[in-house]
Design brief:
By secondary structure, the protein is of the alpha+beta class. It is 29% helix and 31% strand.
Length: 148
């Protein structure tokens, strides 16, 4: 068989198409490249966006906002000193962008102005912390990206 330009072009196209098919199939099958959505109920959360904006406005109107510090035994979230800690309710949600198996939620139950998130629940790396809390009928939200 004689090898000419036409045969070379056809073989080049077949080789290129084979490479692309191999690449696409390996990317869809390999678990290493599997990525989850940011949240399971994305559209439902989007509908709550206006409510969240109102909570952020309420939090900005406070004289003193929530603060956090890293301690030896975890992360300490400090609520405003001018509020009665027993009247503060809500939830703390920690979201790990790299693995949804590490995400967790905790109920706010305070005896003083500090809430401790234990070190055993936290893995080193980036976390998104979201504190959704209520005090005297007003709702507030605190969001922060932290590195632990």
């Amino acid at each position: 068989m004689k090898f000419n330009w036409g045969t070379g072009i056809v073989l080049a196209f077949i080789g290129f198409i084979s490479f692309i098919l191999y690449f696409v199939i390996s990317m869809t099958i390999n678990k290493k490249y599997e990525h989850d959505m940011v949240t399971e109920n994305y559209y439902k959360q989007e509908l709550q966006f206006e409510n969240e904006l109102n909570k952020q406005r309420n939090a900005q109107a406070l004289e003193e906002d929530i603060t956090y510090t890293r301690a030896d035994n975890g992360i300490v979230i400090t609520f405003p000193e001018n509020m009665n800690p027993s009247d503060i309710t809500g939830k703390v949600f920690l979201y790990r962008p790299s693995s949804k198996q590490l995400d967790f939620e905790s109920i706010i139950s305070l005896s003083d102005h500090n809430l401790l998130i234990p070190d055993k629940r936290l893995v080193g790396g980036r976390w998104n912390i979201k504190v959704d809390w209520q005090y005297n009928g007003n709702s507030y939200i605190f969001k922060k990206d932290i590195t632990y």
